[in-house]
Write a structure and sequence with these properties.
By secondary structure, this protein is mostly helical. It is built from 30 helices and 10 strands. The two termini are 22 Å apart. Its main location: membrane.
């Protein structure tokens, strides 16, 4: 008897009745957009011109406040340094200060608009459900080496919530895998089959794995659009940590239908499900301060807004005709593939004449955050390269002025760190000059008065206080709005706990800021030196990083803190006092980073009712459902998978796997694939499955799993007695 037929099947043997992993293709063209050529004739006509409103007054207020505050700060800073004359070093300090101060002044002005939009008004809520929808929307989740039970469980929860509300006929769900780890890929397929089994044969949940993750996430979505986009009016983009209530998803689709000129509608995703100290700080800030910030940019950006790459709905027509990304000239890190593609897609769609805006009133949009300081630094390294790439796109023809502002905003979000660092170094250099270098009181130029190297200490103190107030003001605005909303105040632990939590967040953020300044500055310098970043999966789970890794990452930050402290004390104890927040953060870099990823610290504060958000007191049903779904999938074995063993041991799973493989492209004669040759040779030499598992590298395992002929060779291998006993158990 054939050995394969003797194995116990794990899935439905009647594969012919199993729904296909993918629906029939419905192609749509997605041409690459030119960056240097554009004319007004390329702008589409508006379908509802009367519905287009530009918030000129809000923009005038924002820029007037930002310019006024910056000018006042510049005048005050000039008064600080001009005593005794403005030297080259003082001029550099003044210039760096004005650049950094303008950045925080704009954020301050935007938060004023957000505060005015929210304070004293009834709480914003998601619009009521429409009676019906006329369109079809694809819910699209690109995934890359993620834990299958988490992402599949989340999609299941969203689909079931939409079905409960009676709108399931209007939504399909696509899990688009770019996973490179062969075992995770097979685990995804197992989770998909388990999910299909749980949801029933009528569930329109689909799964596609790409053999080569060409152009990364942007290429993953482009592949979906060009193959299936023609069947849908909209697509709702998720990240692997995204979660949205059915009500929010339906409200977004209804908003798209109501606005025929909308290209992208972005929600405000709130951070939930976080427990480490660092993640809870981010979660609290997102919930308490985020609404004011989001309301501000929603008001004055209007229909010329930006897109954050997830938790947003996109009109398929707008994306296909306007968002095809070219590669940038030159080599990485500044050339090649566009990394922060979401900003660019939004700018190109807006250039085409479509509106891009935010609807912060739509509740029920969630995401997660990195669990530690090191994790957020690793993520920022990739974002930093992508944002600095946008410098090459500032000259793109036809962009709306606010689209260029979005690019500049993203660029400066990382350049601000080295500018801040250079400003501190200039201040130290001036202090050293004043204390240890003999000043030239009388220059060669005729003067009746000596040039005393002094600063105006009283002005400096006033400027420091004003700067801190402008920095903290958006947080205070958000705190006030949060406290004024009764349900949020009560669910967040009450007035005093929320105020204490805000104080903890402000202090911790102040201590972490100098460390992030050096981390981001290092990323900028590496990119300017020509070092490109890779594409590593993001850690989603709570958990601590080994202490040795923390020391290795932050030892030079600590050394710099010691050097700065000693230098400041040698110059003047008062200087050390002025720089104490920066020095303290650097000296505490290692324990801060350790504590940031420490689960116990975050949970202890949670038990005390601190850093608490309303979604922890009243847990969203969608989050509970997603967690329960993920737990069921994990218990069914969707995560811990040995891909080769599963394909070898289960003929029905092997058959399903082969059905999910794409059609084989004919290989040109003479073009030999080394990994395939090596994999075939090793399988030929192998006497048991254990030999194959031991000999095949990760790349060769991937080749085997993509090749039907090699899979047949794998299936014919006998299992070792030990493996057969384990599989039987």
């Amino acid at each position: 008897m054939d050995r394969m037929s003797e194995r116990e099947p794990a899935f439905d043997p009647n594969a012919a009745n199993t729904p296909a992993a993918l629906p029939p293709e419905s192609p749509i063209a997605m041409p690459t957009q030119p960056l240097k050529a554009w004319s007004k004739a390329d702008v589409r006509p508006l379908r509802n011109p009367g519905g287009w409103r530009t918030p000129y007054l809000s923009r005038l207020i924002v820029f007037a406040v930002a310019v006024s505050v910056t000018a006042a700060g510049a005048i005050q800073m000039y008064g600080v340094v001009e005593v005794g004359g403005v030297t080259l070093l003082k001029g550099a300090l003044l210039g760096l200060f004005v650049i950094n101060f303008a950045w925080i002044a704009l954020a301050f002005a935007s938060s004023i608009i957000g505060f005015a939009a929210l304070v004293g008004r009834p709480a914003l809520r998601t619009p009521d459900l429409p009676e019906t929808l006329a369109s079809r929307t694809a819910v699209v989740m690109p995934i890359y080496n993620e834990q299958p039970s988490r992402v599949f469980g989340a999609v299941q929860a969203v689909a079931q919530d939409i079905e409960r509300l009676g709108f399931s006929a209007h939504f399909d769900y696509f899990l688009l895998s770019d996973t490179t780890d062969p075992d995770v890929w097979i685990a995804e397929e197992k989770a998909f089959l388990l999910l299909r089994e749980q949801m029933g044969p009528d569930a329109r949940i689909y799964y596609r794995h790409r053999a080569k993750n060409h152009r990364r996430k942007a290429g993953n979505i482009e592949d979906f659009v060009t193959r299936w986009g023609g069947a849908y009016e909209h697509m709702l983009i998720f990240d692997a940590d995204s979660l949205m209530t059915g009500h929010a998803v339906i409200a977004l689709a209804a908003a798209m239908e109501a606005d025929p000129d909308a290209g992208i509608i972005q929600t405000l995703p709130l951070v939930i499900n976080r427990n480490t100290l660092f993640a809870r700080l981010q979660q609290f800030a997102s919930r308490v301060y985020g609404p004011v910030i989001a309301a501000g940019i929603a008001v004055w950006y209007g229909r010329d807004g930006n897109y954050w790459g997830h938790n947003a709905i996109i009109r398929m027509e707008a994306f296909a005709e306007g968002a095809g990304l070219p590669d940038l000239p030159g080599k990485p890190p500044f050339g090649g593939l566009i990394l922060s593609h979401d900003f660019v897609e939004a700018a190109l769609i807006r250039r085409k004449g479509w509106a891009v805006y935010m609807l912060p009133r739509i509740e029920g949009s969630y995401e997660e955050s990195p669990p530690s300081l090191i994790d957020v630094g690793q993520r920022d390294r990739r974002w930093c390269q992508g944002n600095l790439q946008h410098a090459a796109l500032l000259g793109t023809r036809g962009l709306h002025p606010l689209s260029r502002h979005h690019f500049l905003n993203g660029i400066f979000s990382y350049l601000a760190s080295p500018f801040w660092m250079f400003m501190l170094l200039c201040g130290l250099a001036l202090a050293l000059q004043a204390n240890f270098i003999r000043p030239e009181y009388f220059t060669d130029e005729f003067s009746l008065f000596p040039a005393w190297p002094r600063f105006d200490a009283e002005r400096a103190l006033q400027l420091f206080g004003a700067t801190m107030a402008i920095l903290i003001a958006p947080k205070i605005f958000g705190l006030i709005v949060h406290l004024l909303h009764g349900p949020s105040r009560r669910a967040g632990g009450g007035f005093f706990r929320i105020v204490i939590s805000s104080a903890i967040e402000i202090v911790m953020s102040s201590l972490i800021a100098p460390v992030m300044m050096l981390v981001q500055s290092g990323s900028v310098f590496q990119i300017l030196a020509g070092k490109a970043t890779g594409w590593n999966p993001q850690r989603r789970d709570d958990g601590s990083i080994p202490f040795a890794d923390i020391v290795r990452r932050h030892r030079w930050h600590t050394v710099l803190g010691v050097v700065t402290l000693v230098t400041a004390l040698l110059i003047a104890p008062s200087l050390a006092g002025w720089m104490s927040p920066t020095i303290a953060g650097l000296l505490m870099a290692i324990p801060l980073s350790w504590a940031s990823g420490h689960l116990g610290s975050g949970l202890a504060l949670k038990r005390l009712g601190l850093l608490l958000i309303p979604e922890e007191t009243n847990i969203p049903e969608i989050a509970t459902a997603a967690r329960a779904n993920g737990r069921r999938l994990a218990e069914a074995g969707s995560d811990e998978v040995d891909g080769l063993a599963l394909l070898h041991d289960d003929p029905n799973f092997l058959r399903e796997h082969e059905r999910m493989l794409p059609a084989v492209e004919r290989r040109p004669r003479g073009q030999i694939e080394p990994d395939r040759v090596m994999a075939a040779a090793k399988l030929s030499e192998a006497e048991t499955l254990e030999d194959a598992r031991a000999w095949l590298s990760a790349k060769e395992r991937n080749v085997v799993m993509h090749d039907r002929a090699l899979l047949a060779m794998l299936a014919k291998l006998p299992a070792s007695p030990q493996h057969a006993a384990t599989a039987g158990a």
